[in-house]
Amino acid sequence: MPGKDIAPMRTLSVIVPVYNEAAYIARVLEHVKQCGYPCQIIVVDDGSTDATADRLLAVEGITILRHDRNRGKGAAIRTALPKVQGDVVLIQDADLEYDPRDYRELLQPILEGKADVVYGSRFAGGGPHRVLFFWHMLGNTLLTFFSNMLTNLNLTDMETGYKVFTAEVAQRLVLKENRFGFEPEVTARVARMDLRIYEVGISYSGRKYAEGKKINWKDGISALRCIIKYNLFDRT
Which PANTHER family did the record assign (predicted)? Predict the structure, then answer.
């Protein structure tokens, strides 16, 4: 629940991009509803071909937007942003890797008036972490290091799925990437906006590919391309 030491918030807008997560989406949304904050929940069904659409119809009190085909996480976030009504915007993945019980820590720097943007780091302490893939961790570390070199930030986890923005910042973002390139693109853009950026430790329960994990080495190559593109060339 929100603590007495932080300012009240009218509404938290939670954007949930989802693609083929029928096994998890209902539980994720239930956890979001129980986060302790008044929530506007915007779910973008990104062309799911499993039973995700049926699962969403059974959940009350959410806004559902749909893509007719799979376009990617970045495209889903762009679709949702014009519908945002809250004071703060939080990106929530549609699986159980990221825990909405971490919302208090994620939101506190913004609600205390210290931050405009907050990243939830899987590598900066926080709650329990499932032990999984060394090469994924190394890849994330190298991408974050390269991104930091060009943004002059000192993030520990640029690729995190938990990114939080004030509504004012979220509405100023001009985003182009469709897939997971959203992460390095938005990092490059907020780094140029002279914002107060904070990072807090979060828990993390990573999935194996057999459990539905989607990101792969090709997305790592794309992330490297986006780091170069949005820091050195596309600076609009």
Answer: RFBJ PROTEIN, UNDECAPRENYL-PHOSPHATE 4-DEOXY-4-FORMAMIDO-L-ARABINOSE TRANSFERASE-RELATED
